[in-house]
What does this fold into?
Amino acid sequence: MNRYRSLTILLLALASPAGLASVDVGHVLTPSEVHQLRTSAERELAAVAARIDDAAAPKRHGLPPASVTLQRADAEPDPQLREALLERWLRDWAPERRSGPAIEASTLDRVEALTRFEPIVRVGHHEHPGRFVPAFNVAGQARNRLHRIAVRDRPNELLRRPETQDILEPLLRGPKSARLPEAATPLAFEAAVTALAELSGERRRPLVAALRSQLTADRTGTGNSAGPALLELHERGALSDDSVLLDLVRHAETSVAAAALRRTDRAGDPVLKSEAVRAALARPALGGLAMARAAASPDPDLAAAPWSLLDDPGLGGDAALALARNAPALESDVEARYPNATKRERLRMQLALQLRDTRASRSLLARLTATAASPNDSLPPASAQEIER
It folds into this structure.
């Protein structure tokens, strides 16, 4: 860093009391310099790992790779490169599990200590020129690594238990469970789902059935984690039956049901897709998403659903948006339905035309609004085909 850029940074820091109080101006780098540090750290640790592999091939002994790569970071005299080495080590080279013959307790202790690491290298804030933020995230990466270790160790513990049903306890217990106070934590959830995914299909099947039964048993949508667990298992490819998506659309909490409805787009069964849209239309909280899927459906009954809901006080706006985005013959359908529509339906049709925002829709909208105040309120004799031409 040249002294002119250092002077500029110092002046900026002086202009910002918060920046001056929290920034060591000697370690503020440009994004390009930070990138160079990251690249150097990656090369250094990759070289260490390569040397370990070469030495281990004939001898099969020596220090564990995680310890050796950490020693390389600790031995670096340059504090900037050392911070980059530590972040890179935590992200890609640190231990994955707490137990194992190659894992040293001192290495795990060091990961825990790094959760309190104070940033050294900083970079200018992209929106506030006089402020600076940490360039690396050593403490955050250390916390992430400890979480990953815990998630990978907990499934092993669950799978070692004689009662496989124990895997379901964190997923079937509510957030206020006194017996399992950790039941609703992200760690317990992720560990249980990972354990389920690692079971054989034969052992997993009755547990999945138990989860699916909980979807209908819990009518509040908040008493357990069965819905999110089933959705995650499906995403991981641990469930070969796509019909679980239909159960989720029907019974899971709104966010899970919406995600399951989107996921039916990947399913190859058109009947499943249609049934999922019908189930979604029966849940007002899924209004906009359900309307969009219905309007785009090749099923005529589903495609007509948004039209029938234009007069609904709560869902009419969603229906108008769905038609604007997905109805293939919006202008001609509006022209045919408009004369016999209610006042609210007409307003929603006008909204759909405005949202479609094409030459044909704008032209028809202009005609509709121009005749809205006429005594007979009738549509001038012109067709949508003429509008498009």
